[in-house]
Amino acid sequence: MAIKQILTVPNPVLKQVSRSVERVDDKTRALMDDMLETMYDAPGIGLAAIQIGVPLRIIVMDLTEAEAEPEPKYFINPEILDDVEELRLWEEGCLSVPDFYEEVERPERVKLRYLNYDGEEVTEWAKGMYSTCIQHEMDHLNGVLFIDHLSRLKRQRAIKKVQKAEREAETDE
Ligand code: NI
Which of 37, 105, 137, 166 is catalytic? Predict the structure, then answer.
């Protein structure tokens, strides 16, 4: 396993649409292992492959509390089959937009279909935090960031904040 570099805005790679995984094999699993290690190291609760520069429809996630036993989840080629009208407003963040948080409204429940770590098909409803997180991560697969759901002004502010922090980190080195 290896910790990969997480791309940040406004890197144009993050705007790419990822392609489907054709076969779930050991290479796919090695990528997911790296993604999970990178996510835990950050630390974060979700990561899409494109965030480490790999344009494949793969997501890793772990929504358990920091002190609890890890419960990693893996999603290959996830699709949303259904959702509900009821919306959930939640403050989101993203490892590609570090230290910026803003509320986004998304369906409170979504019905998912995806392949798991072993390449088996899973269909289930995600609700609450799980629903918010998987929708955020699935946006990444289509080149959409959570800041794209905000006003242009807020989005530009977020990007400037990230760029400024990176510039300052560089001069500190
Ligand atoms: Ni994100």
Answer: 137
| CA 1 to ligand 1 centroid distance, Å | 21
Candidate CATH numbers 2.40.50.100, 3.90.45.10, 2.60.40.10, 3.10.20.30; the one for domain 12-172: 3.90.45.10
Query: pLDDT digit string (tens) for 109-159?
Result: 999 999 999 999 999 999 999 999 999 999 999 999 999 999 999 999 999
3-state secondary structure of 148: helix
If you measure from the C-alpha of residue 98 to the centroid of ligand 1, how many angstroms do you get, rounded to a whole number?
10
Instruction: Establish whether 137 is a catalytic residue.
Output: yes
